[in-house]
C-alpha cells in the first residue's frame, strides 16, 4: 500500500509536469532541462518518503526486539521464582514456596503477553520489509530512468542543434540561389542588367548623335560644291565634275 501510494503520487505528478511542459514547449532545451529537474525533485520526494517508511519499520523492529527480550526476561524470572519455590518447599516452608510459585505464574503471564505482542507485530514487520525492498527497487529504477532521461536529453539537444544548423544552411543556400529570380542575388543581377541596358542606351544615343553630325558636315560640303559650280556657270567658265576613280 505504501509503495503504491508513494510511486502513484510521484507518477501522477510527473505525468502532470510532462503534459504541462509539452503543452507550453517553445524551447526544447528549456523543456528538457525542466523535465530533468522535475524528475530529480520527484526522486528526492521518493527518497524522503522511503526513508520515513524505513524509519517506521525500524521502530517496529525495535519494539518487536524489546518484546522478545522482555519475554525472555520474564521467562527467566518465572524460572527463578519456580526454583526458589521448590527449594522452600523441600525445607517444609510451603507458605513462602506458594508465594514464589505465584510470582512465577505472574512472570509467566507477563512472558506470554510479551510473546503475543511479538507474534502480533511479526507479520507487519515481514510485510513492511517486503514493501521497503520494493520501494528501494523502485527508487533504483527511478534513478536509472533519470540517467536515461539525461542521456536522451543530450541526444535530443544534439539532434535539435543539428536540425537548426541544417535549416540555417538551407535558408542561406536558398537566399543565394542563382536560379531563383526572387533571391537577393537574382535581384542584384536584375539591377546590374538594368544598369547595363541604360549604359547601352546612352552609347547608342551618343552614336546616333555623332552620325547626325557627320551627315550634316557632308550636306554642307555638297552645298558648297553646288554654289561653286553655279558661280562658274555665271562667269562663263567651264564646269568640271570631280570624278574619283
From TrEMBL:
Pfam families: PspA_IM30. Residues 132-166 form a coiled coil. Transmembrane segments: none annotated. Keywords: Coiled coil. It comes from the Bacteria. InterPro entries: PspA_VIPP1. Belongs to the PspA/Vipp/IM30 family. PANTHER family: MEMBRANE-ASSOCIATED PROTEIN VIPP1, CHLOROPLASTIC, PHAGE SHOCK PROTEIN A. This is PspA/IM30 family protein. It comes from Microbacterium ureisolvens.
Amino acid at each position: 500500500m505504501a509503495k503504491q501510494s508513494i510511486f502513484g503520487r510521484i507518477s501522477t505528478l510527473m505525468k502532470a509536469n510532462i503534459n504541462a511542459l509539452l503543452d507550453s514547449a517553445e524551447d526544447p532545451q528549456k523543456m528538457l532541462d525542466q523535465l530533468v529537474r522535475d524528475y530529480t525533485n520527484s526522486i528526492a520526494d521518493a527518497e524522503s518518503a522511503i526513508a520515513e517508511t524505513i524509519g517506521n519499520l525500524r521502530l517496529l523492529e525495535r519494539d518487536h526486539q524489546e518484546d522478545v527480550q522482555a519475554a525472555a526476561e520474564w521467562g527467566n524470572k518465572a524460572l527463578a521464582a519456580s526454583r526458589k519455590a521448590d527449594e522452600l518447599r523441600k525445607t517444609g516452608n510451603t507458605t513462602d514456596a506458594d508465594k514464589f510459585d505465584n510470582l512465577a505464574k505472574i512472570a509467566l503471564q507477563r512472558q506470554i503477553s510479551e510473546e503475543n505482542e511479538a507474534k502480533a507485530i511479526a507479520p507487519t514487520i515481514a510485510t513492511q520489509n517486503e514493501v521497503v525492498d520494493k520501494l528501494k527497487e523502485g527508487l533504483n529504477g527511478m534513478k536509472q530512468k533519470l540517467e536515461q532521461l539525461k542521456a536522451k536529453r543530450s541526444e535530443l539537444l544534439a539532434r535539435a542543434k543539428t536540425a537548426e544548423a541544417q535549416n540555417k544552411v538551407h535558408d542561406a543556400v536558398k537566399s543565394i540561389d542563382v536560379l531563383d529570380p526572387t533571391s537577393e542575388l537574382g535581384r542584384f543581377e536584375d539591377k546590374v542588367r538594368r544598369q547595363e541596358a541604360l549604359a547601352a542606351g546612352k552609347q547608342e544615343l551618343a552614336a546616333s548623335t555623332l552620325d547626325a553630325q557627320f551627315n550634316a558636315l557632308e550636306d554642307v560640303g555638297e552645298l558648297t560644291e553646288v554654289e561653286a559650280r553655279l558661280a562658274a556657270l555665271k562667269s562663263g567658265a567651264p564646269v568640271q565634275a570631280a570624278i574619283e576613280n
